[in-house]
Specification:
Helix content is 58%, strand content 0%. It has 81 residues and is mostly helical.
């Protein structure tokens, strides 16, 4: 799966979880939660949506590894290999 495809899916999931946000404005090193002003409940829903969409498990101890758009995309790419 390409980085662009992952990015598009991430944007779609974010838009579904937090419809009032503009995920497409995220820069690679932006803090996703802070930039989009997503609360902890929506952030958890987003992680669950990622788990379901990609069929990967993101354990709670890895949440710190998926803070920025770049780190999230890299994390998903590694998990899909």
């Amino acid at each position: 799966m390409t980085e662009q495809a992952i990015k598009q899916t991430v944007f779609q999931l974010l838009k579904k979880i937090a419809p009032d946000t503009a995920p497409e404005t995220l820069q690679p090193d932006d803090d996703i939660r802070h930039t989009l002003e997503i609360d902890s409940f929506d952030a958890l829903q987003f992680v669950v949506a990622l788990n379901e969409n990609y069929g990967i498990e993101i354990p709670e101890e890895d949440y710190g590894k998926i803070i920025t758009l770049r780190s999230l995309i890299n994390y998903i790419k590694e998990k899909l290999v």
